[in-house]
Amino acid sequence: VKTGKCIFLQSLLTFFFFLHSSVQVNFVACQLFALLMAVWFRIYLHPSKTSPFIRHVVATLLGFYLALFCFGWYSLHFLVQSGLSYSVMVFAGLEHMHKYCFIVTLGYLILCQITRVYVFDYGMYSADFTGPMMVITQKITSLAFEIHDGKMSLQSSRMPSLLEYLSYNCNFMGILAGPTCSYNDYKAFIEGTCYQPRHQETANGKENGKRKQSEPSPKNDVISKLCTCGLSLAVYLSLCNLLPVERSIDVDFVNSTPFYLQVVYLYLAMLALRPKYYFVWTFADAINNAAGFGFNGYNKDGSPQWDLISNLRIQDIELATSFKSFLDNWNIQTALWLKRVCYERCTIHPTTATFLLSAMWHGVYPGYYLTFLTGIAMTMAARAVRHNVRPHFLASDSHKRVYDVITWACTQIAISYTVAPFVLLTVGPSLKFYRSWYFCLHLLCVLVVLVLPVKSRRRQAKEQHDGRQESQTDYNSTDNNCNQKDKAT
Length: 489
Fold this sequence. Notes:
GO terms for molecular function: acyltransferase activity. The chain is mainly α.
């Protein structure tokens, strides 16, 4: 009982210490205010009651108010970044507009990150003004690439107006923590047309007419996500001080603790750190859903899905059995952005280019680059193992379960090892951590890649495409021969 009281008191003190930081107080207060405004926005400014113009204006003004309250005059950088990129989109030609916009937007973000870190406050890690700029960078570049690729569903193929553009970048639902979304999806939400195509796609029969006329309620999903936020925050506040990642590089800890226990501790420390991100991203998702944004059709049982812009799948993260599976379910919208703007367009070493872009986008701390450079090796090694080893375990369910358990443990260790510099931030502690592990996973990755070569995903896709074409050619040839025999007969 005494131990339980001590843990409760420690958690309570940690919570007040957490709120003692004015920046974090502002962030949490603004998100709570945004949640209330989202409910009001959905009910009283419903598309059936007001025009898209009014919805754009209110969403933009509320977004600027929250940014100013939370970040002060630093929030002017949001306007400058958006204004510069909009000018590029208006005056640059369609052929190269997306490239110029990408360079200008990402360059301005990196400039602000360098200034914040190396000029003002090195080590200010959370809730800084460059956080929203990272999401705005994703939105701006996504829009530029959509326009260039001809994927815009805009009337007369026109550019969005300045109001629509600012509303998309700086609306109150996503100004603080995102997530990124497609401009087409946001525009459909503002105009009230986001439900129609998904009703038609997922409903059938008599239920089709009913579902087309009724609008699904996000209430249950919002409540569920808020409960997840509360649980995540409680876990984080209870464990963050008990299991600090920095202890893994403490000399006394390293010298007095067996290596296998160091591995276990690192996993538990990273496990205790993740609920902070679960809280922030799930809360942001709940705010968007409360405003009516995020509907993604219906489940098989007829219940509405509100995961169109969700940023994570917690269960899939914690039970991931591969490095790729973990990354695909962590910060989902950022992964999709990296895939659209880099991986699918880069002709040389797309995996390396994607990880480097992710490092540049995250910031200028050296630990970020160490993490993502390590991630390249981890991804290549995991791909080689999955390609060469996994088929041997698919003969029976029992063998596959053994494989899944082993790969789950390996994935969690690999993720913890890779992400440690991301948390430690600087070069010295990061290299100290890797030295305490004797760079063992780096060396293992190099060995696996050399021993188990694997074809690139692009080459595999090309061979599959060529194989389908050959099959189709053979089928057509056989069909023509049969037709000729029929005619002869």
